[in-house]
Amino acid sequence: MSPGGFDWGPDATPERACQLAIALLAPTLGLEVAVDDYHLFAENFVRRELTGDEWSVRLQDLRESGYREQYLHRDYPENTAPEPADVEIETIDLDTITYAEEFALIRRYDEVLWKKGNTRGNLARLQAIRRGERDPAAEPFSKQWLSTHGRLTSSAAKRALGEEFETMGEFAAWACYATSLTTVDHVGESTAKTIRSLRPTLVRWFGGEENIPRYDDDQETLVTDDADEGDENEEAAADDSSVTASS
Length: 247
Prior knowledge:
Shape: elongated
Structural class: mainly alpha
Order of helices and strands: HHHHHHHHHHHH
Radius of gyration: 28 Å
Helix content: 55-70%
Number of domains: 3
């Protein structure tokens, strides 16, 4: 919310009238309509139709296009809503942004913004990550996180994963980049598929895939190399045996 909050009536400032217009339109009609129409609705309805200390508006009326349209086309004030490209999460002041700026941020960072909980809090979380003030990779990992966000149903798998990984960085790196997930106890093919599907959730938790640590598969590679070397030794022994027999 912008400084000063909401206001209505002919004496309301455009900024505060716009705040109220967005607050009325967004929950009932959605983000796109609110961004497109709030400036018209603020000028032609909030400042002209809402008077006195108290008023009421029925949500079902706002959903009726005919009800809104009678107020939208009297005047055409400039639409000052910022485009997503106009806002930067790293530099914007979240304490003073307007609803329009908040919506622009949501649209710009939709794929990397955490969705659960308070939107302004999620924007603050993303800002802290992008500014280097918060490191999600260092946050503790627990089976509770899997229960809340991971959609895993196997208690044994959740317990095993909780014991296997200490931090979110370790878990996310393994979940997103490990060659195989079934090397962990109680993680079968079905559970592994569910864990792989967490990638978009983890990208949002980390504020972008670039913040997820890479996984070191060296140990698995060494096991594979050792196995290959054993196969080669067996083949060499077989060849020697064959040569001896022929001589």
